[in-house]
Amino acid sequence: MGGLFNYWFVIVLMMLGFYIVMVSPNLVKKIMGLNIFQTSAFLLYISVGKISGGTAPILTDTTMPYSNPLPHVLILTAIVVGVATTALGLALVVRIHSSFGSINEDELLDDEDTYRDFEDPLDPALEEPTDR
Amino acid sequence: MEHHPVVRVAAKILIPPILLFALYVQFHGDFGPGGGFQAGVIFGAAIILYGLVFGLKATQSVIPPQVASILTAVGVLLYAGVGVWSVMLGGNFLDYNALDSHDPVHGQHVGILIIELGVGITVAAVMIVLFYGFAGYLRDHD
Amino acid sequence: MSAAANTVSLASHLPVLQVAVPLIAAPIAFILGSLGAGESARRTSAEVCWWFTFAVSVAILAISGNLAATVMDGTVLSYELGGWAAPWGIEYRIDSVAAVALLIVSGINLITLLYAKHAVVREVPERIRGLFYTAWLLCVTGMLGICATGDIFNVFVFLEISSLSSYILISSGRDRLGLLAAYRYLILGTIGATFFLIGVGLLYGLTGTLNMADIATRLPALAGNQTLIVAFGFLAIGIAVKMALFPLHAWMPEAYTHAPSPVSALLAGTATKVAVYLMIRTMYTVFGVELAFDAMMLGVILITLSTVAVFFGSLAAIFQHNAKKIMAWSSVAQIGYMGIGAGLATVTGLTAAMLHMYNHALMKAALFMALGCLFWRIGSMQIDKLAGMGKRMPWTFSAFVLGGLSLIGVPLTAGFVSKWYLILGVLEQGWWWLAVLIVISSLMAVIYIAKLVETMWFREPAVDAPTGEAPLWLLLPTWALVILNFVFGIYTALPVGVARSAATALMGGN
Known about the structure:
A: mainly alpha, C: globular
């Protein structure tokens, strides 16, 4: 197990993130959990690319073993995707808060159930239909 | 935070080197570690620091929200523009070799420079737009 | 350069242009949409945005039609992005399977976009319409990219482009439950995509390559490797989330119900189809039939889950009170049919899956658009509010009924053709009980369609119910799709031939 501790770390992080996403009723905390979960995947990639004793992949005069830079580049992309997801998720939470008045999932579920049977849940700012 | 002189002075000293460092990371990206993503984030961080210390209004007079949001699109267009340019010069999409018919290595340099510039502009602008969006929300809705 | 040389060189760039054109168009649409400042200027800029998006959609449909015509005889177009040769650089690879998927996406995109122009008036706030079309273009870019690329990490990137923009599209309507639906989809979709990412990472660690064709040549030597099994599991679950396969379907009914109707039609017609394409591509091309179906028993898993999906989805659809939700649950069931076809791992089964991808896109988009017409007039999708509206809106109603017939699988409709091939494929294996189950599940579709028809036609409308037909510009695209359902139900040679040649290519050409 000694040489594989980073993979154990990945698994622990992944499960932590997953647990938070599933258990926390708070929508913001869920996004934090999601971030931890994604980070574990990033670590997995970096671990795969690491070569023991390898240096940073920069061209120098002497040749020596270097770590595989491709996973780094891939993960740079994945990190950007993660940032976009986080920003969009938080933006949705902000809007959920302003139209439902809560970011606690338990309360939101109640809310949804109560008015599902009554009216159509349109925002009051509905424009009148215009025949064109 | 405008009333905390220490924060204000520290920010004023720090922001110019941060911006400069962002430009270094941006344009040194062909030769060393760096590139558009990192530079864009550093640049955006400098603006956000300014916003945190001096307030949203002052920041938006430096970079108006309209400009920031249009810059997000301009960076992507710059990136894609290189692709179209290389197709028009007879290469494949994003084939930098085609950018300079005499010296492909020079073409590679030109291509990666413009592309990273596009990435840098978009990333910085997106960071700023996100900051404006979230910071301005409370002001707009209370 | 002469004009002739120019067209020749453009033709060789079509695989990348298919994705690059909407990708470049998205930021332009964003700029166009954010130019308007005042009330009227904003309306004009939204209008300009639509026309621009429309022009782009026509262009990508032309490109995908051209690509399909080129690859139908079995040629495979390969395009090296940036001039880097295939295993190292990113390769765009169009074969007949990809061409079919590209054609579905760009075709449905064009028709739903025509529909969107007027539907957004009712459902999307004016100030975000420019952004709406930007997100629309990005969503289409992502889906086209998944189909066109031959690089498995590229698939992840496009998957996230299309997913992120579809979260935006779902939450862009006035229905505030759309926000919750989009949030849930974001959480589940991101977990699914991250699973896919982990699977790709493990595969890369094993093979040292990201090119799908290259991975495929290296995997047989690794059969039985523990990491490979884990990678397979991660990839399969990640794609199953995006596909909304039975136990992972939770996001879909909510998302489709509360999205604006053109978005529901677009996503129902394309998003899950692209995920099914990705499943087929990963399992057949990357892992190969021996590895995926014999060693990992994908067939048993897929067919079991899909059969449960068919029944669970149909049953849930019967008990819904919201017309759009009925259609969304029915999508869960229809994905099941595609899953069964893909799980059979025979040419007939795959033909059925590909046919159903295509036909279900036609019928479900038509149905969602018909419901959108009703929504335009009524402002609600609750089933009580629909009472008697069939008589007041005869054109919308008849479009809905005809689309429903196709969904049930009545002869002469497209839905019949794909179910026919599915049952053929099942009987080929000697699984008559599965064929019986498919027929029973079709009868369940009769129940939920009949429930809507009964409400709309045989009940008396409420006293204050609105009168009048939906506008012509909503009806025309709806009817265009309904008619296509019948065209491909009667003139079956073209879709069946295309699907069969694609299926044969996937099964290794025998």
